Every structure is written in C-alpha cells, then in structure tokens.
Amino acid sequence: MTASATASHSVVPPDRVGARGWAALAVLMLPVLLVSVDNTVLNFALPAISEDLTPSGTSLLWMIDIYPLVLAGLLVSMGSLGDRIGRKKLLLIGSAGFGIVSVVAAFAPSIELLIAARAALGFFGAMLMPSTLSLIRSIFLNREQRRLAIAVWASGFAAGSALGPVIGGILLENLWWGSVFLIAIPVLLPLFALAPFLVPESRDPHPGKLDVPSILLSLVTMLPVVFGIKHIATDGIDVIAIAAIAIGLTAGVLFVRRQGRLETPMLDMALFRQASFSGAVLINLLSVTALVGGLFFVSQHLQLVLGLSPLEAGLALVPGLVVMIIAGLVIVPIAARVRPSVVVPSALAFSAFGYGAIAITGGDVDVLGIALAFVALGLGIGAAETVSNELILASAPAEKAGAASAVSETAYELGAVLGTAILGSILTASYRNNVVLPAGLDAEQQSAAGETLGGAVSVAGELPGPAGNALLESARMAFDSGVGFAAWIGFALIVAAGVVAGVALRRVR
Questions:
Q1: What is the DSSP string of 255-316?
Q2: How far is 413 from 397, CA to CA, in rounded Å?
C-alpha cells in the first residue's frame, strides 16, 4: 500500500454506535421525560392547588418559579461536577433525590412546604439534565448519529409535555393534585435498574478543583434578577427591584471575571466567543421563554375561562406538542443540507404566526383556536431547538460536554423562569387591576378572589347564584384582559429568536 493510500485510510469517521448505544439513549430519555412531564402537568394542577391551599398570587408564582430558578442556578455547577466525578454517577444520585422529594411534594399540607419541596426538586433536577445531554455527547461520536440522538432528546421534552396534560388530566379527575408528583416513581425505577448496565460512565480526564465561590456567584446571579423582574411586573419599578437586579448583574460580572482567571474554570467563557454557541443558547432562551409563558396562561384559560376539565384541556394542547416531536425529528435530514441561518428563522416563523393569532384576538379565543395556534407554535420551536442544541454540543470539546450541556439546560430553565415571571406577572397584575369583587365577602374571600382566577372560582362556589356568577364573569374577563398583551410579548420573543438565528448563525454551515 502506498504512503498516500495509507494517509487516506488514516482519517476515518468517528465510530458509529450499535444497538447498545441506542438502548442507552432510551434509558437516558427517562429523566428527560420525567422533568418535562413535571413542568407541564403542574400548570394543569394550578387550579386545584389554588382551591385547596389558597395561596396568594405571588406564592403561586413562586411555587412554579422556584423549581426552574434553583435548577437554573445550579445547572452549570452540576454539569461541571459531573465532568469531575462522573456523569452517570451524578445522574443516579440526582434521580434518587428527585424521587424521594417528589413523594414529599405530593403530600405537602401547605403552600410554604410545597414551595420548599419544589426548591429541593430543582436541586436534584440540576443533576439530571446536564448528565443526560453530556452522556449523549460521549456515546454518539459520529455527528450524523449525534444529531439524530439530540433530536430524540429534544423530542423527549415535547413528548413529556404531550403526555403531561393527558396523564395529569386523568390523575386530577380521579385523585388529588399531589398525585401529579408521584409520576416520578414509575419513571425512575427502570432508570435505576438499567442505567448501571447500559449507560457507560464518562468524565473529564483532567478535571480541576470544584470552585465553591463560582457556585455561589452563579446562584446569586439568578435569584435576584428573577425576583426583580417579578417585582417590577407586580409592583412597578422601585428601589427594591432596581437593587435586586443590580445585585444579580454584579454577581454575574464577578462570575465571568472569575472564570477568566481560573486555570480550570467551571465554565469556559471562550465558548461564548463562538457565534454558533452563543447564538444557539440565546435562541433556546428566547423560544423557551415564549413557550412556557404561553403554557402558563393557556392552561388556565382552557380550564377556568372555557370550563374544560384538566383532561380536556390537556387533550386540546396534545396536537401542538405532537407536532413539536415530529418537527424535531423531520428537521434532522434538512439541517444536514441547509444552513442553520435559514432553517431556524424559517421554522420560528410558524411559531410567530401561532402566537400572533392569539394576540390578535385579545385573548378571546376558543378551544379550536388555541389548539391550532399551538400546532404552529410547536412546529417552529420543535425544529429550532433540535438544531440549536446540536450546535451547542458540536461547538464544545468532548471533555467539557457536561459544562456545555449545562449552558444549554440553563437557557431552557432560565427561559422557564422568565416565561412565568414575565408573562405570569403581567397576567397577575392585569387580573388584580381589573377584577371586581362583589360586596359581602369576608377578608379571606377577598384575598383569595382578588389574587388569582383559581381563587375566584373557589370563592364563587361559596356564594349565592347571582353573586357567584357575577364574580366568575368579572374574574374571567379580568384574566383574559392580560392574555392578549402577554401573547404579543410571546410573539416578540419568537421574532427576536428568529433574528438572532439569522445574524449569529449566518456563517455556520
């Protein structure tokens, strides 16, 4: 054999995995399905939680926000920890903790304990998600196979979102609201049985020391910023909001500067100098903010305004979430041939159309209109997220897969926080300002009915017919008064994500 022939044969494509690799992917999809089911099913349990625990509007938002807030604040730290101690090991530790705390949340007797349990779920959930995506990066070395694996991973989120409303609807119609948290148990048991045998361990061969100040700075960056955003939406701009956001931004700057000085940083900031990496992260952030914010108000509109049962409301959104799964898989061969700067904006144009359709109606939309709008929304976001997640992993070296995966997940979870914080707070403020309470309510009834639509539904059931009907009518109109404006915000977020894709990814092949 000639030297040139030898050289030509020395460059071979990365190894393609066989059946065992795809079986490992199936196991890794279990925690992905669990987290996505938990996110969606909770939205449909909000009316029942509001009626049973009678939280204030702020407490209800914190119950939703605290999980993704803690999770987002710890994702980078946990991704870096997985690179050091082993990603499979961290996955199993997180799964055990998540299962135990889910049982605690299911039987929480007060909104305060439920908020605490949701925070603990965020802590253990932060161990799950970077581990799954970084293990996929280490298992699938061939980029063509990895792109398909990531499409399956992203579709798992959509599948969980599709299953969540249906499973949650069945549970909520037959059991109490806490049953939605017990879904974790049958999902995690197969993970513990199969992961030790099918999923290979992987870690950074040259890890640095775990940097505690960086962990604390990442947390201090997240919490005050989200608190400030929520405070502005509900109480306006004041000293408290400005101070909170300033503290968060200052901590963020200190975090970035510290990573630049460390010999082995928790997060390699050089990744963000790559347009493909930073652009894909921002696309995820903007699109997930729009998606989760939309689910927050649409799930309540379907049940509390249109009068659907939890199961009926869940089924109304299933077509859009199924389309999201299909779009994530169909886009794989297209993305291999068409530039991301063309594929992603084209896909997101469908999502913008769906949000715009809700916005134009001013919130006065029936079940069919919402279902069709979510089909368009799911089509665009499903395709865009498959492409953006693959770009994030492809831009990072394999040994830093955990940290890179954590950044992708942080964008997801920060988007979930901002979706409920921004759009949810807009709805809460609009509701408080527009609801008209009938005379004769005691202090407790005034507080419940004046804070949330779920509280008003509960109080209306305690009043005589005419008074109860008047309260329901006023509460539903007050809620929908904010839906139209919130939908325009979602439309703007999707358009912004499309613009980012067209600019930041224009040189990516």
A1: HHHHHHH-SS-SS-GGGGGSHHHHHHHHHHHHHHHHHHHHHHHHHHIIIIIS---HHHHHHH
A2: 23
Q: How far is it, in rounded angstroms, from Cα 149 to Cα 143?
A: 9
State the pTM of this model: 0.74
CA distance linking residue 429 with residue 431, whole number of Å: 5
Helix, strand, coil proportions of the chain in percent (round to 5)? Answer: 85, 0, 15
Contact (CB, 8 A) for 323 and 379: yes
Query: What is the C-alpha to C-alpha distance for residues 501 and 390, in angstroms, rounded to an integer?
Result: 14
d(CA 347, CA 380): 4
Q: For residues 379 and 353, is the Cβ–Cβ distance under 8 A?
A: no
Written as six digits, the tokens of 142 are 């061939």
Considering only CA atoms, which of 429, 420, 411 is closest in space to residue 72? Answer: 411
- Residue range 202-222: average pLDDT? 77
Kindly write down the DSSP assignment for every residue of 54-113, as one continuous string: ---HHHHHHHHHHHHHHHHHHHHHHHHHHHHH-HHHHHHHHHHHHHHHHHHHHT--SHHH
Q: What is the pLDDT of residues 225-259, one digit of tens each?
A: 877 776 775 666 789 889 999 999 999 999 889 98
Rounded Cα distance, 248 and 243, in Å: 9
